[in-house]
Amino acid sequence: MRSSSLPLVLVLVGVLSVTACGTHAESTASGASCTGRPSGTDTELERGGVRVTGFEDGSGGCVLFEVTHAEAEPFTYTVTFDLLSESGRVLYSAEETVEDVAPGRTAVGRVALSGSMAGPREVSRVRIAEVRSVPVDEAPSPGGPCPDSGVRVYADEANAVMGLRVVSVRLENCGTRPYPLHGYPDVRLLDEDHEPVDGVRILHDGGSVAGGTGADGPALPLVLKPGEGAWAGLVWRNTVEAGTPVDVPYVRVRAKSGADPVTVVPELDLGTTGKLGVGPWKKQEE
Predict the structure, then answer these.
(1) Are residues 223 and 251 in the same domain?
(2) Nearest to 113 by CA among 72, 58, 33
(3) How far is CA 39 from the centre of its chain?
């Protein structure tokens, strides 16, 4: 997902918290009507079940959009909007998280632009830059109430150095009983449509892709006491040579056989390498 900073506010049949890059906005249920017709191509205004339905530029303007969910179970959506100048330059981006959209339902969202934004009068149009969605039951849980499973599973943002990428999958025992682990997390790669990605080798040893990342070494049995954590590394290179580059937005993770799945969004840009290194579970150091 795109990184974000200062807060916006999103009105979605109630009020939800959202964020924007390098700016701040106010949002209320009243104000600009957002009845203006948004300009742009179909691919800019409609993507992945999200559609921009209204846009008013300038100070006091707003963006109106809909999230239509066609899957058989509730999903949480994260949508990134780019606000553009007349020439098409990206002035800033806003990332909105819309939780628990029920099957067959359409959620209406509204983002208000305010005078505190950098150069709000320069904004001419909006486009949908990216849509990501995960089943509510498989959403990562870096905070909040402890899941019924008794463990939290989530992923850090990728650390990129000279074409090498490393993502840490984190597990925390937030329950009341010891949690045993041995081996590697079970990972399944999914494309934008949440379909399995074929043709990528999963290598059980992060060091098989690159050493010195900490994701190598033997798989040792662990027992996590309540409050303790573990991590496992996903390691890849985005080298592009002959062939078609492979991008994998989603990874469905099971901590061990029989564990509940969690879908993380590490945005694997695997290039044409065709392989992903997965390190063993290691206890998180204090």
Answers:
(1) yes
(2) 58
(3) 27
Kindly state whether residues 156 and 258 are assigned to the same domain. Answer: yes
Residue range(s) defining the domain that contains residue 110? 7-136
Residue 123 and residue 40 in contact, taking contact as beta carbons nearer than 8 Å: no
In angstroms, the first-to-last Cα distance of the chain is: 28
Both 101 and 41 in a single domain?
yes
> Which region holds residue 151: left if phi is over 0, alpha if psi is between -120 and 50, else beta?
beta
Q: Do 148 and 258 belong together in one domain?
A: yes
The closest of 79, 56, 84 to 66, measured between CA atoms, is 79
Average pLDDT of the segment spanning 113-132 = 73
Least confident residue range of 72-76, 110-114, 162-166? 110-114
Clarify whether residues 41 and 145 are in a common domain. Answer: no
Cα–Cα distance, 147 to 139 (Å, whole number)? 10
Q: Residue 138: phi, psi to the nearest 5?
A: -115, 10
pLDDT in tens, 45-91: 999 999 999 988 766 678 889 999 988 999 999 988 888 888 888 88
**Cα–Cα dist 245/234, whole Å:** 18
Which residues have C-beta within 8 Å of that of residue 47, sequence separation ≥ 6? Answer: 128, 130, 131
Q: Same structural domain for residues 200 and 248?
A: yes
The pLDDT confidence band at residue 8, using thresholds 50, 70 and 90, is: very low
148 & 85 share domain: no
Q: How many helices (H) and strands (E) does the chain have?
A: 1, 23
pLDDT at residue 7, rounded to an integer: 36
